[in-house]
Design goal:
The protein is α+β, with helices and mostly antiparallel strands and 409 residues long. 38% of the residues lie in helices and 17% in strands. The strands form 3 sheets. The chain has a 7-stranded antiparallel β-sheet with strand order 2-6-7-1-5-4-3. Helix 5 (218-234) packs antiparallel against helix 6 (241-275).
Length: 409
Amino acid sequence: MQLRYAFRLYPEPGQRAALARAFGCARVVFNDAVRARQDARAAGLPFPSASELSKRLITQARHTPERSWLGEVSSVVLQQSLRDAEAAYRNFFASLKGERRGPQVRAPRFKSRKDARQAIRFTANARWKITAGGRLALPKVGDVRVKWSRALPAVPSSVTVILDAAGRYFASFVVDTHSATDRTRWEAPDPDRAIGIDLGLAHFAVLSDGTKIDSPRFLRRAEKKLKKTQRELSRKRKGSKNRAKARLKVARAHAAVADARKEFHHQVSTQLIRENQAVAVEDLAVLGLARTQLAKSVHDAGWAQFLAMLEYKAQRYGRTFVKVGRFEPTSQMCSACGHRDGPKPLHVRQWTCPACDTVHDRDHNAAINVKQAAGLAASACGAPVGPELVLAQREETGSHGITYPNRAV
């Protein structure tokens, strides 16, 4: 299984300038590849192949006055930028044909130097390394200081250097982990120990054993500070240095909220996966709920990110993860006798079953129904496991973008 481990970088002024050149060159090559595709489509010609684009946009372009500065950065960075453009078009066409799951993917757009996130990737061909002193040696950049929070479990296959909107640098390593080794890190729980989870807004999660996890409401708690920084930004003259400083202050305030939320999700998901052999959740329509009057609270809860963490940690540590269909009437059924009492408005937090006179807490009853609907009530071992393993995305492992970048999970 491939996972990402991110660590904070602290480049010196000269190294920041070198990284800025690398970001800019990678962006130009990507945009040139998109433009070449668009020109070929407008002329009715077949799309140029990857090898043809590499020869034209990198090898030959380096010897022209307009693109001579491409030689100032590692060629691997430019080749990886071309691969990113090819992958973007493959995803776009697969989405058009219905071969790609999830929402439809748009055609690749041109990148801008004002984008919130800049990134370049170094593979093994770039001959980057971790020095004996613990620094990250990057070609044509130098030895960059890294704040290591833990040791890497294996030799990484590639590293991506990221600059976020708050002006922070990160090194994200791709590491191949072994499932057998990961599963022995924790003591195995009782094979029949299973839990059902009902996610909500009043409480972040209510478990089928009656445990209620309060919602920290990170965005709501930080709204006063966010409004203040946003007002300061709106008063600055466009194009001024003070406006750039105010914009950075706003980005850092939002990053602090996102990092705190991600850390909370990591802590809760790790505890649930570590203590239970099987976990069942309801497949929520997050996109639909985000269009309602509860949109801000839904986004603040971050259910999609939390469910993604539960899923990949269950796969990594040999647990069972089950998603119950969103149309399952978990809030309408009595968990004691199975009587279906119909839909109820959100303000109804307790109700009495008319068939068996059992008094139910709405969320606790729903969590029990989620567990029963997933088939975990009798045994945790027979439940189906989630989807097949896929290449790790940036958000998959570690706390990306915080002072302590990687919490051990």
